[in-house]
Amino acid sequence: MKASELRELGREGIRRRLAELEDELLKLKLRRATEELPNPLRLRVLRREIARCHTVLRELELKESEGRNA
Length: 70
Hints:
By secondary structure, the protein is mainly α. It is 87% helix and 0% strand. It has helices at 3-34, 41-69. Belongs to the universal ribosomal protein uL29 family.
């Protein structure tokens, strides 16, 4: 999911998406310990999507705090 698509979701939508991604990442990490993953690159994609979510949330926080200070 692109950052622009995340921004359209809003804060709660991003948090829900983030929780889903972190849950999926945890499940894949546990599965990797016991068996071979069908798509090991999915781990990298998930980590990057999680980072993207955190980045967009931080942008929203900064924009909000900037509005209060002005």
